[in-house]
Amino acid sequence: MFRSNFAPTSVARKDKGITGLETAIVLIAFVVVASVFAFTILSAGVFSSEANKQTIHAGLKETRTRLAQQGSAFAFAGHEGSTQAVFKIVFIVSNSLAGEPVDLTAPYSADDSGLDPDIVGGASTATIISYADENQRMSDVAWSQTFIGTNNGDDLLEDGEKAEITVWLMDRVTGTAVGSNSSIAYTDGNSGNGGSASGLTSSDSLVVKSTRFVLELTPQLGAPLTVQRAIPPGLRNVMNLN
């Protein structure tokens, strides 16, 4: 009788022990699964955030211009026949994004001899300049550059460097004084005989007094630099457009 009184209690204790162990295993498994799930979610979130950040930075690089104009813009006038007109526009640019160089390999140069500008044979030009006014638009005009101040001698505009950009709308006949008749000429579309192959032709309108115009410098990467100015109401050989 004594043994029979204690037998059920022993069995109950064993059942309770097994039940507690199973519960602990289930809880541990739940915690492990939850931890793995949370780690997966966090990892996906971090990866997504990093991808979004890279996308945003890439978008900013495409929408921000890498060029900034420094100082004034100048227009230079000569005479096509006896009519005075603007033949080139000059301004200075710098790099607006430190560490992001801009390729300013120019398609033309100028040497104050014969007809200017002179085509640079084999030049691989990455930056394009367009011109527009109320009478015409040219999507790819002739331009040349000269680095001024401190620079490392290459054609990359880097942080701390400045370059003078000359946009050629017409040819300059260097052997004739700029104030004399026929000191500038329309471009004939053939740079082989000197001068530009992409500028105002005889079928275009001369850039004369009070002409409003827009220049766009479009680098290989980034947004264009826009220069908007107006020619003064009275033409002179050199005019400050600011």
Automatic annotation (TrEMBL):
Protein name: Flagellin
TM ranges: 21-47
GO BP, sorted A to Z: archaeal or bacterial-type flagellum-dependent cell motility
PANTHER family from the UniProt entry: FLAGELLIN B1
Provenance organism: Candidatus Lucifugimonas marina
Keywords (A to Z) from UniProt: Membrane, Transmembrane, Transmembrane helix
Pfam families, per database record: Flagellin_arch-type
Record keyword Cell cycle present: no
Top-level taxon of the source organism: Bacteria
MF (Gene Ontology): structural molecule activity
Membrane recorded as keyword: yes
